[in-house]
Structure formats: structure tokens, C-alpha cells
Write a structure and sequence with these properties.
alpha/beta; two-stranded antiparallel sheet; 32% helix
Length: 402
């Protein structure tokens, strides 16, 4: 591996339907216990669908009254998750100008946008803009170095983590708070995805609605979440005696250039993306211990990803997990949330089981982990995100002791 290019992961923070801490999220994943429930997307209860809503979220636990008034729910989730990640890292041990933040979001302040149409408040624009999360995180943590926001649909969070790696490698920052945030549980969003045929809409079994790679899949389950990682120069993290959860070793990104919403049916863009991430990490495919799949539970994405994974690693040659079966699909936050999960897999040496997989789609000839967690051999984990627009991003994590 190109160890000289590796970056330390020293902090983790999450807010999602499956847990408000990495520990709670991990426990639920190991139990393969879905966090999906019926959710009313509007006050009248006219739009009720399975969804992954964050239960009991209280922004007042980490935001002031003034901050709550000035932020969309998406940013509120982001500020809390990022603060937890910074706390977990023991603070940002670099001068403010050597700190950076990279956020990813697909929808920005969509709740603010929908509620303000026709009668916007004076705070309408600063609440809905995509880079609001990056501003608030930088202001909270005295980050005066680079600040960026990426919006590549469901790959946004993974792109944020990968571009943070590149920023540290290039010498632009010593420590980066990187991740994604999304709060898309609005009636218009739910109706749009439902009418497009991409989202599970049936209400008879909400906990079983997200079924990646299953022959009886129903589409993805819309969720909200925020997840952030603190990434540091490995030498500096070791010098200060930081606890290192894992190292970020590789990053790949490609575009399908095929269709606005559908992946290339042969998974060629996804395959190349994984190959680039492995090459960046200096890895052969047979060295990878586990694949954290994009696994949305939509037919086109599942089949294309299965073909891509098998093309890279061999047919059913590597254990695969699809966390969206538990967490739901949080769009721009999903890749960051799954980066956290991949880090936990590396740290704990376990692949969580995929929930709700009763009958594997024969077109998805994968070794999908089900039933119980699987002990992993010591080795890297790759996390995949393949988005609308054909935007692909993959990151590779490994043990800091490898």
C-alpha cells in the first residue's frame, strides 16, 4: 500500500435513523435490525411512506436558539454529527488556517425550500443554500482554511471524504472535517421519487421495505442523516498520540456518461471507479476483505453494482454488505454514513449482515453477508457510492496497524 499517502481517521460522528452515535449505529447493524418505519411526510397525513427518520432529534442539545432559527434541519443534523466527530478526535490539532471542511449534500435545505415557497422569510436563502453546513461547521470549529461543498447526488458524501483525502495529500490542510448531511423527508421529495418508481411506497411491512439484492426488492427507502469523519495527516496524528480508528488509503471517482438516472447496465463506470480506488491504495483485488455496497434496493442499481463487483473481485469472491437495508437511503449523506460504517468494519474486523435478504436475485451473484456478522480477515474495506447522474465514488479504509 502507498502508506506515505495514507490519512488517519481520528474522529467519527453520526445522526441517523439507526443511531445517534457510531456505537448505537454499529450495534443495530450487527443485529440487522431495520430502522425503517412509517413516516407521515405532511401534517395532514396524506403522504405516508416507509422512511428512515431520525427519532427524537433535539437540535437544542448542540445548537443555540439563534442557530436553530437560522438553520435547516439538514444543517442541524450536520452540526451535531460534526461536533461529535471533532470531540471524538480530541479536537482539531492544527492552526485554524491548516484546518478544512468538506461537506456533501444532494438537496441542501430542501425543507426550508418547500416551506418557504411563496412566502420566504428573511432567512430563506441562508437556510436553503447547499454550503450552509460547511459555513456553520467552519464557524463552530474555527476552520479558516479551505471550505467546500460537493453535490453529486448519492455520491456526495463519499466524494467529500475522498476530496478531503486529496486535500491533505496535496498539502492544502493538515486536518479536515469531511462528511455529508441530508434531511429530504418532505412530501414533494417523497411523491417525486415514488412516482419515478425508485422508492418503496408500500406500507404493509415498513421494516422490510429496504431489500438490497433481494429478488423481491421494492425500491429504496428515503432517509435523513448526517455523518462526519475527522481526517488528519497520519504522521501528525501519531505524533500527538491520537486514537486512530482506521486509515483512509485510496479514492476513485468516475462518471458513467450514460443516463441521467440509470447506471450503465454493465456497471462499467462502477467497475473502473473501484479499480481506481484500489490502485490509489496500492492494492490488488484479492487483498480486499470486504465490500460495503451502495446497495439501494432498486433493480437497475443492484444488478449493475453486482456485475461491477464480480468483474473486479471475481464471482462471489468477497463478502458484501448493504447497510441501506438498515439505515435507509439518505441520498447525499449516505456515502459519508457508509464511510463511517466501513471504518467500524475495519476497526472491529466484522462485516455486518444485510437485513431483509430472503431470496438473492440470481442476477446478483454476490457473497452477501446475512443472518449474523461475519468475522473478516485482516484487510482493507472498500465503500461504494454510485449516484444519479452517473457519478461514482469509492474509498478504501485499512487498519492503522496493517
Amino acid at each position: 500500500m502507498t502508506r506515505h499517502d495514507a490519512v488517519a481517521v481520528t474522529g467519527l460522528g453520526v445522526r441517523c435513523a439507526a443511531g445517534a452515535t457510531p456505537a448505537a449505529l454499529w450495534e443495530r447493524l450487527l443485529e440487522a435490525r431495520s430502522a425503517t418505519s412509517l413516516h407521515a411526510f405532511d401534517d395532514e397525513g396524506a403522504v405516508v411512506r416507509p422512511a428512515g427518520a431520525v427519532p427524537g432529534f433535539d437540535p437544542g442539545s448542540c445548537l443555540t436558539v439563534k442557530e436553530i432559527r437560522r438553520t435547516d434541519r439538514s444543517v442541524q443534523l450536520a452540526l451535531c454529527a460534526a461536533a461529535d466527530a471533532v470531540r471524538d478526535a480530541g479536537g482539531l490539532d492544527a492552526p485554524p488556517v491548516r484546518r478544512a471542511v468538506v461537506t456533501g449534500t444532494g438537496y441542501g435545505g430542501v425543507s426550508t425550500q418547500e416551506s418557504g415557497i411563496g412566502s420566504p422569510s428573511a432567512l430563506y436563502v441562508p437556510r436553503l443554500m447547499h454550503n450552509a453546513g460547511a459555513y456553520w461547521i467552519s464557524a463552530r470549529h474555527e476552520i479558516t482554511g479551505p471550505g467546500f461543498t460537493l453535490s453529486t447526488a448519492c455520491a456526495s458524501g463519499t466524494h467529500a471524504v475522498g476530496e478531503a483525502l486529496q486535500m491533505i495529500r496535496a498539502g492544502g490542510a493538515d486536518v479536515v472535517v469531511a462528511g455529508g448531511h441530508e434531511a429530504p423527508l418532505t412530501p414533494t421529495t417523497a411523491l417525486a421519487f415514488g412516482r419515478a418508481g425508485a422508492m418503496a411506497t408500500g406500507t404493509e411491512d415498513p421494516a422490510g421495505a429496504s431489500r438490497p439484492f433481494d429478488a423481491d426488492r421494492r425500491g429504496f427507502v428515503l432517509a435523513e442523516a448526517a455523518a462526519f469523519l475527522v481526517l488528519e495527516r497520519l504522521d501528525l496524528a501519531r505524533a500527538r498520540g491520537a486514537r486512530i480508528h482506521a486509515t483512509l488509503e485510496g479514492y476513485g471517482r468516475t462518471s458513467d456518461a450514460h443516463h441521467l438516472t440509470a447506471p450503465h447496465p454493465d456497471g462499467t463506470g462502477a467497475r473502473t471507479c473501484m479499480e481506481l480506488a484500489l490502485a490509489d491504495a496500492g492494492l490488488r483485488p484479492d487483498e480486499v476483505a470486504h465490500v460495503n455496497a451502495h446497495g439501494t434496493g432498486t433493480e437497475l442499481n443492484d444488478v449493475a453494482e453486482a456485475r461491477a463487483v464480480n468483474a473486479v473481485f471475481g464471482t462471489a469472491a468477497v463478502p458484501v454488505t448493504a447497510p441501506k437495508s438498515v439505515t435507509g437511503h439518505s441520498l447525499g449523506a449516505a456515502g459519508a454514513l457508509e464511510a463511517v460504517i466501513a471504518v467500524l468494519s475495519v476497526r472491529e474486523g466484522l462485516a455486518p449482515p444485510t437485513a431483509n435478504l430472503a431470496r438473492l436475485d440470481p442476477r446478483c451473484a454476490l457473497d452477501v453477508v446475512t443472518g449474523a456478522p461475519r468475522k473478516l480477515p485482516d484487510g482493507p474495506v472498500i465503500s461504494n457510492s454510485f449516484a444519479f447522474g452517473g457519478h461514482n465514488a469509492c474509498v478504501v479504509f485499512a487498519s492503522p496497524h496493517g
